[in-house]
Every structure is written in C-alpha cells, then in structure tokens.
Design goal:
Blueprint lengths: L3 H7 L7 E3 L13 E5 L4 E2 L4 H7 L8 E4 L7 H18 L8 E7 L3 H7 L4 E3 L25 E5 L13 E4 L4 E4 L20 E3 L4 E3 L4 E3 L4 E3 L6 H5 L47 H4 E6 L2 E6 L1
Parallel strand pairs: 1-2, 4-5
Antiparallel strand pairs: 2-3, 5-7, 6-7, 8-9, 10-11, 12-13, 14-15
Amino acid sequence: MGAPRLHFHLRHKLQSFLLDLDERFAEYLGPEEFCLYNMCNNHFFYDRKPFEQFLEGTSSEQLVIVTDPPFGCRTELISHTLRSLRKLHNQINRLPCTPLSIFWIYPYYSANHIRQEMPELEMCDYRINYTNHLRYTNVGKQSRFCGSPVRLFTNVPLRLLKLPLEGYKYCHKCDCYTAKENQHCNRCEKCPSVNGQTYKHCASCDACVKPNYVHCTNCRRCTQKEGHNCSFYQTKQHCWLCGQKGHIETKCPNFQKRKTNYSKGCLLCGKRNHREKRCAYRTKYFRELCFMNETTIQCL
C-alpha cells in the first residue's frame, strides 16, 4: 500500500499487487496488479475483484503487506485498514483469525501511537532513506544528524531480519540486528536507542536516556534541560506506580492512601538502586496483567 517503487522493483521477480491513491499508475499497470485505493478508509474506488483474486489461494506464509503511508496519517486509520485487509484475506480463503506479515514504514517518534493500536508490531533499527525527501535521508545538507528517522515496524520476529553489515551489527543478547550506535544495556536488558544515538543509562531514573538529557530531581526523570517546565512535564508522564498518565509517583492518587516512610529512592522499598517499576515489592501493592505487550495495572 502506497509503495509504488517497491512494487515496480518486485513485479518481475515476485507476485505483487499495488494499492495506491495515484491514478497515474493505471497507465502503466493493468487491473491484475493495481487498484485505485485510499488506505485511510480502506476504500476501493473501482472494482476490487482483481485484488480479491490476488488474495485467493495465497496462504498467510506467502503474503506480506508493506505499507508506506504519508506521515501525517492517523495511526488509528492505518491500523484499521491493516486489520480489514487481514480479515478480507481470511474470509476469501476461509481461514480462522490468521495474522499476516506486516511491514509498516513510519518515523520512530510515532512508535508509541503504533504500539497503542497494534501492540504486536516491533520496531526494527533499519533506517529507510528517501531520495525525494531531503529530511528523511542520511545524505545532504538538510539531513538529520542522526540520519533518517524512518523505521520498519513489523510483526515478523526481528531475529529473522538480517540487516546489512554497513551501519548495523548483530546483538547476541537481543538476538537481532541493531544499529552500530545502539549499544546493549545489561541493566535494561535491551538495545534501547531508537533515534540513532548512543543512549546512556541513568542510575537515578533506572532507565536509558538520550545523551543530551539531564536528570530532574523534582520530576524524578531525565529530560531536556532547555525549556523544561516541571508542572507541565509531569502532566505528560506515565506514573511508574499505577501506569496512568497525568502525574508522577509522588503525586499518585492511587498510592497516596498507602502509608510508606520512603521519600527518596524507590517509594515502595526505599532503595536507591532501582525505581518503582522494577521493585520486587510491587506485587504487594499492585497486580499486573500482560496481554499482547499491553500491561494493565490494578491497585490492591
């Protein structure tokens, strides 16, 4: 969807079908490999029968959806479209609820929005460069100092994606390829960087942060020093105790009824080598339920 250059590259090597909003492609592609389509509302402008014939008889192991939507699109709309196409494929082939392999090309700073809609998708470190977008490439005067911010989000296990050795490395602890700048953190048990920089681990936050971030003792987090406003910043944070957005741990309404004598370090046990989200005493105060990478926290 919305990836014409990839389609023209694959059409003579693999069976490929292009869904795109640009009707000019109809001059070069026949109806057996192109449909005029709006990915924001899953609308076929003309007959979608050729696309259904393309889906017919293809198993979920043989079919891959690659989508490169405009970066201004709402992730809710694209997620709904992807689920609709999966449902259509299952209906045509009379399959149960079977997932399809998805590659969603989008900037890394939209990762939280994508995971909120499709928590099964993980971000790959592979950078996507555009030749017609000066800000989304690794070359040129207007390129970002960390390279292109565009990444691959996929439900394919990252260990199956072999990235080129130039600019990437294999992390044995994560069992997948990552950017060379993305150094593994033993404390966080992952390669934490998402923007192409080498993150640093903050002992006070007990988390890996961007190298230019500084720790704010009032907010109990690392953030940008320039323009930082504690009151406003705290309203945008997720509480490490209850998981809800809008406050930090010292102002948690769900935990204020609990009487603890700790004002520094971890509010649950008083130790300073970790924060509440990793405290062994969490089970005494909270019950956590995890489903499809989504965690629901209940206060006891």
